[in-house]
Write a structure and sequence with these properties.
Protein name: Response regulator transcription factor
Largest sheet: 5 strands, parallel
Order of helices and strands: EHEHEHEHEHHHHHH
Pfam families: GerE (PF00196), Response_reg (PF00072)
Keywords: DNA-binding, Phosphoprotein, Transcription, Transcription regulation
Shape: globular
Structural class: alpha/beta
Strand order of the largest sheet: 2-1-3-4-5
Modified residues (4-aspartylphosphate): 55
InterPro entries: CheY-like_superfamily, NreC/VraR/RcsB-like_REC, Sig_transdc_resp-reg_C-effctor, Sig_transdc_resp-reg_receiver, Tscrpt_reg_LuxR_C, WalR-like
Radius of gyration: 18 Å
Strand content: 5-15%
Number of helices: 10
């Protein structure tokens, strides 16, 4: 079965270009499109695509709100945000809302295709290091932004330590080396962290680590 994709962008030329790129791959199928966030919500609930390619700056309803509504609807679609700037606060808003990552609109076609496949398979496609750089800037600009650190109380001391390393953008192999653990053990700890905190992926773990103050800008 092909991976089904909903293309959302307020620019017709951008939608046409994306459909042309995706249409060249037999394992991908564009099942619909939308030119604003409100239409994206309706189309996602109707079509239940595997992946929604979501613009963030759109009329009627923005992409961040649309992402949150799509995730909350339980339709099962995963959202991949497309943005013009890598340090875009709207991209962070989409990650907080449940997006599986974001890509720049000038991403090479082969990287876009790879990202869609990864997201459809349950992975996040944003480098935690890129997310860290975005969070460094935004939280430094707004120190009051955050969440109650008590949400981390469900974690063991070792799991908190693993979360700190995740927030630093380290891979399982790097965490294993730093903590003198096997990669299999680290993978188990990462899974428990995500499950206990009800997070979809490592990128959301990075966001939460910053919002709770477990990691401070510039310290990870």
């Amino acid at each position: 079965m092909p991976i089904t994709v909903l293309v959302v962008d307020d620019q017709e030329l951008m939608r046409a270009g994306l459909k042309m790129v995706l249409g060249a791959h037999p394992d991908l199928e564009v099942v619909g499109e939308a030119d604003n966030g409100a239409a994206a919500i309706a189309r996602a609930q109707e079509l239940r695509p595997d992946v929604v390619l979501m613009d963030v700056r759109m009329p009627v309803t923005d992409g961040v709100t649309a992402t949150a509504r799509i995730i909350e609807s339980g339709c099962g679609s995963r959202v991949l945000v497309m943005t013009t700037f890598d340090l875009d606060e709207h991209a962070l808003g989409a990650l907080r809302a449940g997006a599986s990552g974001f890509l720049l609109k000038d991403t090479p076609p082969e990287d876009l295709i790879s990202a869609i496949r990864s997201v459809a398979g349950g992975d996040a496609v944003v480098s935690p290091k890129v997310t860290k750089r975005l969070l460094d800037r935004l939280i430094a600009d707004d120190p009051a932004a955050g969440r109650d650190p008590s949400v981390l109380d469900v974690l063991t001391a070792r799991e908190r330590e693993v979360l700190e390393h995740i927030a630093a953008g380290r891979s399982n192999a790097e965490i294993a080396s730093a903590l003198f653990l096997s990669e299999a053990t680290v993978k188990t700890h990462v899974g428990r962290v995500l499950t206990k905190l009800d997070l979809r992926d490592r990128v959301q773990a990075v966001v939460l680590a910053y919002e709770t103050g477990l990691v401070r800008p510039g310290n990870a």
